[in-house]
């Protein structure tokens, strides 16, 4: 049986490149905005449309790293969690506002920004980079670092666990590493 093909995603070194504070894509404020949008997709698994529609009112409790996603795919609401650094940057970015859109930019423009940032950062397969691949990267990171599949399903807003299970078939090198560690442990117990 063959492994299911896994969506294209950013490896760790490419994630570091695209999030680098040294990466410049435009004037200061736009550069900060663009980096934050990419960071949110990569660190929360939010969809491009969710980033586009994100409002100040949706930043429910950044001290607890909670972002409310309204009218997600399928019309459902959900929460996503932001790592402390992303929550801090998002808080700073929206500090002077009490309501309204955070970014005020359409999904198509975000797609263009993601591809351009990937090219400038020098990530592998930059021409294939899309916001959804950043979402895949979040999901694969979750699994690689030991996150459970049900929690991932909830964070991604999938209705079916079967949709989320594709991320269990992550890259072969990681799978081989886990297998070899398990076999070494088993061999030690047999001696």
Rg estimate, integer Å = 18 Å
Strand order of the largest sheet: 1-2
- Average pLDDT reading: 85
Contiguous helical run count: 9
| Percent helix | 40-55%
Biggest sheet: strands, sense, closure?
Answer: 2 strands, antiparallel
- The percentage of residues in β strands lies in under 5%
Low-confidence stretches: none
**How do the helices and strands follow one another from N- to C-terminus?**
HHHEEHHHHHH
| SS content category | mainly alpha
Characterize the overall form: globular
Task: Please tag this protein with its features.
single chain, 191 residues, mainly alpha, 9 helices, 2 strands, 52% helix, globular
